[in-house]
Amino acid sequence: MSWKLVIGGVGGQGVISAGIVLAEAAVIHEGRYAVQSQSYGAEMRGGLSRTDVTISNSEVIYPKVDQAHVLVCLHRKALNAYTGVIRPGGLLITDSDEAPIRGRVDSRQFAIPFAATAREVSGSERNANICMLGALVAITRVVSREALTAALLDRFGTRDAVTAALDAGFRLGNEHAAAVAVRADAHEAGRHATSARM
Amino acid sequence: MSASGSTATGPRTVFVQGNEACAEAALYAGLSFFAGYPITPSSEIAEHLSRELPARGGRFIQMEDEISSMAAIIGASLTGSKVMTATSGPGFSLMQEALGFAIMAEIPCVVVDVMRGGPSTGLPTQGSQGDINQVRWGTHGDHSIIAITASTHQHLFEATVRGFNLAETYRTPVVVLFDEMLGHMRERLVIPEPGELPTVDRLRTSVPEGVDYHPYLTREDGRLPMSDFGGVHRYNVTGLYHDMWGFPSTDPAIVDDLAHHLHDKLELRADELASVRTYGMEDAEVVLVSYGSPARSARQVVHEARLNGQPLGLLELETLWPFPAGVVRRACRSVRAVIVVEMNMGQMLRHVKAAVDAPERVFLSNRVDGRFITPRDIRRVLRIVEGQGE
Predict the structure, then answer these.
(1) Could you give the CA distance from residue B49 to residue B47 in angstroms, rounded to a whole number?
(2) Residues in B touching A41 (Cβ below 8 Å)
(3) Average pLDDT over residues B276-303
């Protein structure tokens, strides 16, 4: 199984750092394979920012992501630009304040207030990317929680703000994943009810 | 750079950019002098070496431009250092004159060209393979040169080490070519233990101090032992045609000998210098020929085709110059079609066509808009070639 993820936002949100940390968690702390790439250009200066990450148990041959299992959007510009990359039935994780979902996207959706939560628990929205990584890993288990924590600490050192944002991310991710599971159960039950009536 | 474990010995797994993989390989090969001028998308090579090379006892100099960078590594190589510079297209253009000097004076050096879109300043942050023929013929006059490439960080590491070995063995500039995609993307690299990959030092003269040393007197095996400039021997080095003393000569016999020597020392060894990787070639009926990062897209297509039982193969070239014509001809003999996959207007296509028995069965799958070529791009050409429409 290989996971293909795209994380999008605008310059300064730490989108590329998040992609690197996620891939490092897989390669350095889990002994798996990963490729991380990014788009450069005008996008570096406050414009769109995107990183592609593929994580796999075997060698990653093609390095880009054309159809993502998971799309993460931390800004509405990214949501507008990248929804086409998500494969039907994939996961869409957004910042509920910064990138509200409008219109229909064929995906399982998680809208979580990363920036607001980061500000609240760590004192800075700059940790929204860390909060997002916590939630992403809680929802998908693309890497283990331990591996992500170790990779983050390698890069940023043990800082209260980092661990606070990460823990909040894990907690929010777990809550949202549980809620979606419950809704999916209800949906299943509804379908059975329908077929019983027929 | 993030690494698992911090032991001084043993292989190290790191997660790095291709540029860093190239720089680490240079250190592994014994690099002791780097001069360069930063340019996207190669700058991380200089950045990495500016920290690591002095820490390991070598010299790093940021020069005023690429002309002086090339000149500086030539001088340092003559004094006995293993040398490298790194640049991208616009800087590589500036290096052509001194590159020719290094070819003529037979000075070992490694030049890294991380390709971006061109001509001119082109597309600084996007990939391309537009410099393939510039590497071969960018500097004037009849000459030969070695150019190598790779498509993964692990292979790039090996290719770069090999580049140093070839430069030192054949006393020639070696160009390590890759593109922005590979240079900037990050992936796993296992840095081998010292000794795991062979590293070659140049042949040095056994002529003692006080005895005449002929810098350009070839041995019977065609090799030219060197003497560290500034050491015990005094000799001349020039870009003019020269005799065994290194002094200028217009003697037709001397000029003819040297012209043939510079050409033959590499061109007659094309098979020996050829490095290729093959995927699914055993029973392939259609062959993709690719090199550098587009070879990953090609390999993905072959991987998926093989899962469906389609007889598709990939011939990945790692030696670009001298062009491995013999290897290409043998690999493409009796196949239905050959598709060259590259990110330019067909620079390698013409050489593949010239090498194979049936050039009319060679096609091009390319991309020149700055985006990375996708498996889908290649499959579309494959379908057309197979008469299946788009």
Answers:
(1) 6
(2) 125-126
(3) 98
